[in-house]
């Protein structure tokens, strides 16, 4: 597969779902201090690299650029300037759809996905529902979402493209109803 060249996006106008996070420090674990902040076009090169390393069906640079330009929200979690993880969401009226959540392999099992998910819920002013899809086989993610209050609401049969073994995996639909 040919290596893609990163093309920076133009500045993205508009407001972020996480304006109050400006470089908020959080201790997810005793010795891990992570910084949460709203992402921007300047983060897309690192986001793209992490996206490719985490997902068989990764988004292209163009798709990530288009997402930010069309109003998706990007939440960055970093430690000492290194991207630990990110959360990409789309808000439609009173619902947030989690499009992607990714954690760098070196930061897994350190509370990054939980921190990003909790920040999403904390910043969900005026939102009734948060929805997401997760691979049926991704048991750790499903457990995390259940612990955060998400309920499994259905399945999308053979949702994901065939893997190396030619198997199309189902997606589990989950949602979190937020208090009004």
UniProtKB/TrEMBL annotation:
It comes from the Bacteria. GO terms for molecular function: protein-N-terminal-alanine acetyltransferase activity. Residues 34-179 form the N-acetyltransferase domain. Gene3D superfamilies: 3.40.630.30. Pfam families: Acetyltransf_1 (PF00583). Keywords: Transferase. NCBIfam families: rimI. This is Ribosomal-protein-alanine N-acetyltransferase. It comes from Mariprofundus erugo.
């Amino acid at each position: 597969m040919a290596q893609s060249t990163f093309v920076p996006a133009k500045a993205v106008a508009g407001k972020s779902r996480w304006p109050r996070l400006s470089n908020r420090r959080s201790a997810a674990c005793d010795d891990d201090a992570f910084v949460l902040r709203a992402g921007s076009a300047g983060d897309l090169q690192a986001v793209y690299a992490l996206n490719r390393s985490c997902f068989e069906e990764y988004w292209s640079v163009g798709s990530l650029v288009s997402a930010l330009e069309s109003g998706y929200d990007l939440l960055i979690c970093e430690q000492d300037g290194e991207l630990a993880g990110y959360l990409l969401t789309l808000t439609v009226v009173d619902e947030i759809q989690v499009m992607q959540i990714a954690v760098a392999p070196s930061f897994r099992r350190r509370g990054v996905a939980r921190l990003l998910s909790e920040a999403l819920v904390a910043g969900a002013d005026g939102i009734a529902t948060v929805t997401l899809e997760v691979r049926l086989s991704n048991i750790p993610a499903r457990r995390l979402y259940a612990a955060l209050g998400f309920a499994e609401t259905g399945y999308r049969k053979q949702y994901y493209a065939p893997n190396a073994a030619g198997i199309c995996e189902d997606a589990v639909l989950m949602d979190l109803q937020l208090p009004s």
